[in-house]
Design a protein that fits this description.
Blueprint (H helix, E strand, L loop, with lengths): L1 E8 L5 E8 L9 E9 L2 H8 L15 E9 L9 E5 L14 E4 L4 E3 L6 H23 L9 E3 L5 H12 L4 E5 L5 H7 L1 E6 L15 E6 L3 H9 L1 E9 L13 H5 L3 E4 L7 H14 L2 H6 L1 E5 L3 H9 L6 E5 L3
Parallel strand pairs: 8-9, 8-11, 9-10, 11-12, 12-13, 14-15
Antiparallel strand pairs: 1-2, 3-4, 3-6, 3-15, 4-5, 5-7
């Protein structure tokens, strides 16, 4: 028997989350079985657990879009018993049972080796959010963004993507500005490396198609009017890596920043990113993200704490990253 957070849906389409014990035969068939040590709660996980958005495509479902643990057995020669692995995305926790459980059965193609620099707790203190932040940094660098071009803005700065993005960019020598709705957390953001903290309200309302040139680049996890205003405020030749939709799916923008200032809008997807890009991102995280950042930026909870935590996360009451210890 293994414990898991199981989501079910009632006739009125309400989502119900409950910690249950499941038989090994209840897990879906797949090539590799993993004993999960740690998982995490991302924004998408919170939407799934609360039912606030149709993240889950079929019920019952074990949520959790990522996990880290040890291979128990494998039908694929790339992995053997005892290998340390992690997983991010691939529809896990949406269409295939995910990481908020003590075990998982998944396709071998979905796994990557856990870097030697990290234990499983570290890996989930980074999680999909931190891995996405690294992909955003890589996207900006691929578009020629360098520190001497000017400051880089990070929106949703207190969230999982935002906090890790600030830490990574500041350690690469960038001047980092942070946008947040929780100005009381300014000291934490500055400790991570932000040199300026601004109120998200200055970006979240409808704005002009072109605005004062303020930033050389940006990492945006918010979308909607915020992303539109960020694009309108980038310097000539600037770039924004867009990876989230906390404010909304819409983009009420004009083409002006793109055709008059040569701005680039680079979409960043972590779910289906190819293997080589995943390996590069995790390798760079192992080299460039100090352990003390993870320690100061992470809360650890047990599986039974997840439903309430998901509500707090959506209410904007969670700072940084949350690790779920499956032994609790």
């Amino acid at each position: 028997m293994s414990r898991a957070l199981l989501l079910t849906q009632s006739d009125d389409r309400a989502t119900h989350a409950q910690v249950v014990d499941l038989e090994p035969s209840q897990w879906p068939e797949a090539e590799v079985r993993v004993a999960i040590a740690h998982s995490t709660v991302n924004y998408k996980d919170a939407l799934a657990v609360t039912g606030k958005s149709p993240v889950v495509r079929k019920f019952p479902m074990v949520p959790g879009i990522d996990f880290a643990g040890t291979v128990v057995d494998s039908a694929d020669e790339r992995f053997k018993s005892g290998d340390r692995v992690l997983l991010n995305g691939w529809g896990v926790g949406e269409t295939h049972w995910g990481g908020l459980a003590q075990q998982a059965r998944v396709k071998a193609d979905w796994l990557v080796p856990l870097p030697d620099a990290f234990d499983t707790h570290d890996a989930m203190a980074i999680g999909t959010a931190g891995y996405t932040a690294m992909l955003c940094v890589m996207a900006l660098q691929a578009h020629g963004v360098v520190p001497d071009r000017g400051p880089v803005l990070v929106t949703g700065a207190n969230g999982g993507v935002g906090t890790i993005a600030i830490a990574l960019l500041s350690r690469l020598g960038f001047e980092v500005h942070a946008s947040t709705g929780r100005l009381n957390e300014s000291a934490h953001l500055q400790a991570l490396g932000a040199t300026e903290v601004i109120d998200r309200a200055t970006l979240s309302a409808p704005g002009k198609p072109l605005q004062k040139e303020r930033w050389a680049a940006a990492v945006d996890s918010v979308g909607s009017h915020t992303l539109a205003n960020v694009c309108a405020s980038l310097k000539y030749g600037g770039a924004v890596a867009a990876c989230g939709l906390a404010q909304g799916l819409d983009l009420p923008a004009s083409v002006a920043p793109f055709i008059l200032r040569g701005v680039t809008l680079a979409g960043v997807d972590s779910v289906m990113a190819p293997y080589a890009r995943r390996i590069e991102a995790w390798g760079r995280l192992a080299q460039e993200l100090p352990r003390e950042v993870l320690t100061a930026n992470t809360e650890t909870v047990g599986l039974a704490d997840v439903p309430l935590l998901a509500q707090r996360l959506l209410a904007g009451e969670v700072r940084g990253r949350v690790v779920v210890d499956l032994a609790r």
